[in-house]
Amino acid sequence: MSLFDASPLPHEDLAGEAGSKEVARPLAERMRPERLEDFVGQQHILGPGKPLRVQIERDRLQSLILWGPPGVGKTTLARIIARMTRCEFVPFSAVLAGIKEIKAVMAGAERLRRAGRRTLLFVDEIHRFNKAQQDAFLPYVERGDIILIGATTENPSFEVVSALLSRSKVYALRALAPEEIVTLLDRALKALNLTAAHGLLEQIAIFSNGDARSAYNIIELASAVAKDGVIDQTALESILERKTLLYDKAGEEHFNLISALHKSVRSSDPDAALYWLARMLEAGEDRMYIARRLVRMAIEDIGLADPRALEQAIAAQQCVHFLGVPEGDQALAQIAIYLSVAPKSDAAYKALGKAQETVANSTAEPVPMQLRNAPTRSMKQWGYGEGYQHAHNFEDAVNTMECLPDNLRGTIFYEPASRGVEERIAQRLAELRSRRKKEP
């Protein structure tokens, strides 16, 4: 079906025979704006003089990727663009289609191009296409058979093939602000001939977490229990059980939240760590994934400043595995608090990094003879093991033997911090390094 077939305005035909069909459609679908002037949000790319708006108004559109969270208007914007640039709008779902369907649509687009008409192919959830499927679009994009608009909730750098990415402009859409959601809800109430207090709409906006579709769904459900055309607190509470959380276990928000948890622990802020942990638990994150990341924090950010941190983290991991949900969640909370208040040191983490950098940037010197094993008589004759000092034959088991290659003699990788247990380690290490120096 062509985009340019006659269609009613969002709030028209709400009564009568035509209206009964319209009402059957979800409110979010009925409320889609058809003009750019009515589109709410994304002013950073659609405001006057902004790049995407200029492209649309001048009809100089190129293939593009709309990247943003759910319910911010990616599909709606694509439809508006097609209408304003008078392109044939062809929606395409990555969930339902494969290579065969792609080729069929492309053949139709090529015929339209020869007839002097342009096709705007809108690919929803383009990140769900595999590499071969995404590559199938390339020749048609390059020939100009189609203008491709891909929509994705995932970071295109990770999910869209580089060849297609290089031929498209990526625009990042933002979650809608509460006041923008309220604007949309005001329109929906007028369309439904309902009223609600402004404060109630603000609550819905907060609960929807920047997702207009979620906000519309809440209003639609609340309208079914509204009395005398009024949505009140009772109606809202009857259908609203919890905050809708933006989360995708395989997507960017997954990494944003674990990053927030990690950095809160590193910053010794147990309250923030508990908040981000609760966000992940509420969203249904894999508990063992969280446990593994907390073990990493114990190694990376606490290290030898509190050697027990790793023990506690492993114990928490075992507890989560043993108890499951929800009892194991308390173990995650406990270790998150422990790691947050523990003394911090990344000295061991940095020490390994320095050693790896040295290995990468220096000649791989042979192992010194004194450190080599000599299991055969010939190897002993060749000097293997010559000069080896068995530590237990020395006072306090401290010898003076050099264990680094000659070109790295005296190199120091590990520099302990002066916090927690590592303060005592620093003192012991200073003593060891002093005693291990050879006499002049």
CATH names the topology of the largest domain as: Rossmann fold
| Terminus-to-terminus distance | 91 Å
Query: Which H/E pattern describes the elements?
Result: HHHHEHEHEHHEHHEHEHHEHHHHHHHHH
Mean of pLDDT: 84
Q: What does the overall shape look like?
A: elongated
Q: How do the strands line up in the largest sheet? A: 2-3-4-1-5
CATH superfamily of the largest domain: P-loop containing nucleotide triphosphate hydrolases
For the record, the count of structural domains works out to 4
CATH class of the largest domain: Alpha Beta
Structural class: alpha/beta
Low-confidence stretches: 1-22
What is the tally of helical segments? 22
> Based on the structure given, which CATH architecture of the largest domain is correct?
3-Layer(aba) Sandwich
